[in-house]
Write a structure and sequence with these properties.
- The structure is a homotrimer.
- Chain A is of the alpha/beta class.
- Chain A folds into 2 domains: 135 residues, Rossmann fold (3-Layer(aba) Sandwich), CATH 3.40.50.1370; 156 residues, Aspartate/ornithine carbamoyltransferase (Rossmann fold).
- Helix content of chain A is 36%, strand content 14%.
- The first copy, chain A, is built from 11 helices and 9 strands.
- Chain A has a 5-stranded parallel β-sheet, with helices on one face. In chain A, strands 2-1-3-4 form a 4-stranded parallel β-sheet, with helices on both faces.
- In chain A, strand 3, helix 4 and strand 4 form a beta-alpha-beta unit.
- The first copy, chain A, starts with 11 loop residues before the first helix and ends in a 15-residue tail after the last helix.
- Chains A and C meet through strand 2 and helix 3 of A and helix 2 and helix 11 of C.
Chain lengths: 315, 315, 315
């Protein structure tokens, strides 16, 4: 039995097979509509995350399956002091696969050790949110036709932005990519991400505070929200929150085929006038999210693609 | 693509077609049990309203569809500062139709402007709750056989009572109705409702505080709850909350065929001894609610009635 | 129409038929997978209880049915002052069967008086949690092959432990059982449980504080959690919470075929090293819980077992 706790829970080959399956389902979902008839997904969300929870639930429903779960720790048995391990083992009796969101890093991993069914990490604190990373890869590949030899700009909160860390690691698996990290001084990429993801494979990267100067040279721009909930200090948040604002005027400096990604929700770092620009790819990400999660569920339940006969995961 | 934001989002002809469809489904639900197989309803409730949410969910389930959503703002991404427009556009990827409840007037309308799927207003602050209005019309028509030439008494909180305002507007579309507004001085029908709904079509109406005197002359009585949550002042609420209490003794003054409606929940404005009186129609309203919501979903998804071949909405 | 408010809502014969049905479904669930197609279960949980709610929902989903409901009073209309009676009557229009959890004793009984569909008590304060009792019986019978002539040790919080009171009553229906109540002085079995369950049928029982001394003589051990939420006094809770801790070393004193039951969640009254001992039966209970709840739903909906043709409830 396999789990999906971080992107490299799957080999690179498996990750690409997952993207292929998601692409096929997006192109024609009909053959997949009943693959999970009679199966149940449990969404155990120890903190609210509407977007992610509903995306997983929609994925399971679109495969013919059903869902149950909870959407906040106050609704769970956590308040009675139960460990995540016990909860996972218990819920293994109620569902065929578990998607867990937890404010504490490592909780989904701990859950997977006692669960009797596959566990998907749907975000654990500052650690990982691997389905989001797969969505980002799928969207970049759709827009650029490849995942290598790209110059990718990451802009905004690179310190707390978990999706940035994971996507950096994921793109480091491919050849010839160049990373441009654009942030205020106080929100730069942490040293450990450089040590773990960039240095070992000698990635080419630069750090800067100037979005405008970099725009003309990017193949992909990945914007992020300054996340109020990560700041201890309100004043600090207020000082930094409006530091980058991409609007249609600024976007004129960028190449015509440079997609703009954002994991959403956004506040004001991307203005609404960008939404109608063909480069806006952040609603594509939401759309792709359902297919990625369908693919993850099929992979972990070891259900082959009825069209190709192939499974995502190797034996 | 059409939305259902207020009763006159649908033409009068469409409203009547909706009532007809609801009546047919109530009489024989079997032919409709699989019309929404594979479809998903999202219930986005930014404030709790169990009755309305469960009614919409039951409607979708009884059509063969599935549901997902949230039941309170603390469970949503609203806490991260996302706009209703972005949420609606995002959720359009997860569901085929959205029912939205929001404490702020106009939120469902704003959602409908960015949504890629139909949006149903499931109540927005003091503004509208159009499915409730359709339920009221369906129930009156079932009981009285018509929606015109009726004397309708509205009793209780006519100031904040959104359902009263909407039903007044809806009944003003029909000929020969007479409106009797029964309330304490402080909870009278707002001037703007008179200006918008009663004056333009020269409706006949009167205002009074005396329920008992009016009872013998009414064709329909619509009771409402004094809603604590609308008062800023606890003292004010306590003074007014018990101002009308309909019990079986008082009901003896009313005609034998005068249905008593109430949008529920009730506190003590209708005593339990009325429940067994054949004139009690408020549980009929709950029952009809599921069929009205089934009809709204079918209308917006543009699914024809398999029995008659007709669609509710004109092209 | 029947309800399941406490274990003896069903006759002893019916209880045994329920256990038989649950056993058959556990052995082979396939013939039961579509018995509730098109049916809806409402889970009305006025206090959170993830385990119980998800178990009921999983049961209904595994029968082919669907679910709706709420998972905490703050999400319900209770905050608008609606009575449980009105809510139950309203929800009867949305669902075919109701499972209700409520902090107040007697609430599910009151609900059943106005409901138009069967009501299952999913726990009401200190009163009853009858599906848990059925789970306990099923698990004991699976492990020991019988429900009579057993020496059962109950250990921990016997004062507030609702499951202990119910299981004591249930086992008193069978011949030749002996009860050993193991607790600190302050958490002894209440006198009313003795009066109601033990005295009328002259059951043999003893009370002690010494778990270790009793272990070698038990056929079954039922452990319970010291429930913080039942204490008014934090200090009192802290003094008592660690009073019994069963670990693998202590378990060596017990017979090799003495199952250890616990209604879960546990804190530290059973150590993790016991989990791998074949005597650990508490995860069996969770597993059995889904089948018991499937059986209760089928019983109340009066759906016969397609394999045997038998119904659980007598006409």
């Amino acid at each position: 039995m396999r789990h999906f706790i971080e992107p490299n829970s799957f080999s690179l080959e498996e990750q690409l097979a997952l993207l292929d399956l998601a692409d096929r389902m997006e192109a024609d979902p009909a053959p997949y509509a009943h693959l999970c008839d009679g199966r149940i997904l449990a969404t155990l969300f120890y903190e609210p995350s509407t977007r992610t929870r509903l995306s997983f639930e929609s994925a399971m429903l679109r495969l013919g399956g059903k869902t149950l779960g909870f959407a906040g720790a106050q609704l769970s048995s956590a308040s009675k002091g139960e460990t995540v391990e016990d909860t996972a083992r218990v819920v293994s009796n109620y569902a065929d696969v578990i998607a867990m969101r937890h404010p504490k890093e490592g909780a989904p991993l701990r859950a997977s050790l006692s669960a009797r069914v596959p566990v998907i990490n749907a975000g654990d604190g500052g650690h990982a949110h691997p389905s989001q990373t797969m969505i980002d890869l799928m969207t970049i590949r759709q827009r650029k036709g490849r995942l290598d030899h790209l110059t990718i700009g990451f802009c905004g909160d690179l310190k707390f932005g978990r999706t940035v860390h994971s996507l950096t690691a994921a793109l480091s698996q491919f050849e010839g990519n160049r990373f441009v990290f654009i942030s205020p001084e106080d929100l730069r990429l942490p040293q450990y991400v450089k040590n773990e993801s960039l240095e070992p494979t000698h990635q080419i990267y630069k750090e800067t505070a100037d979005l405008e100067a970099e725009l003309p040279h990017l193949d992909v721009l990945y914007m992020t929200r300054i996340q109020q909930e990560r700041f201890f200090n309100e004043e600090e948040y207020l000082r930094l929150k409006g530091c980058y604002q991409l609007d249609e005027a600024l976007l004129q400096k960028a190449p015509q085929d440079m997609p703009v990604l954002h994991p959403l929700p956004r506040i004001d770092e991307i203005k609404k006038d960008v939404d109608d620009d063909p480069r806006a790819a952040y609603f594509d990400q939401v759309h792709n999210g359902v297919y990625i999660r369908m693919a993850i569920i099929l992979a972990l339940l070891d259900i082959p693609d009825p069209v190709t006969g192939k499974k995502v995961l190797e034996a």
